[in-house]
Amino acid sequence: MPKMKSNRGAAKRFRATAKGFKRGQSHRRHILTKKTPKRKRQLRSPAMIQDADVGQVKRLLPYS
After folding, report:
1. By C-alpha distance, which of 56, 53, 63 is closest to 5?
2. Which residues pair with 15 in a beta bridge?
3. What's this model's pTM, rounded to 2 decimal places?
């Protein structure tokens, strides 16, 4: 039986940790002038995947 393929788009977006999957924050690519420095600073830090979505991400990344 061949190995399963992981979804490459998901592999670039999510990283497995001990407590689940972490992801990057959105809304930090463009139109940054109207966003406050506090908001942009907080968007730098990664966030965790919601519990309801963990099953979907595990299916996309079978070996993580």
Report:
1. 63
2. 22
3. 0.84
Residue of 3, 24, 11 whose CA lies nearest to 58: 11
Residue 39: is its pLDDT beyond 90?
yes
* 3-class SS of residue 28: coil
Distances 46 to 17, 24, 31, 58, 60 between C-alpha atoms, Å:
12, 5, 20, 18, 20
Integer angstrom CA distances of residue 64 from 1, 10, 37, 44: 19, 11, 35, 24
Kindly report the length of the chain.
64
Joined together, the tokens standing for residue 61 give 């990344």
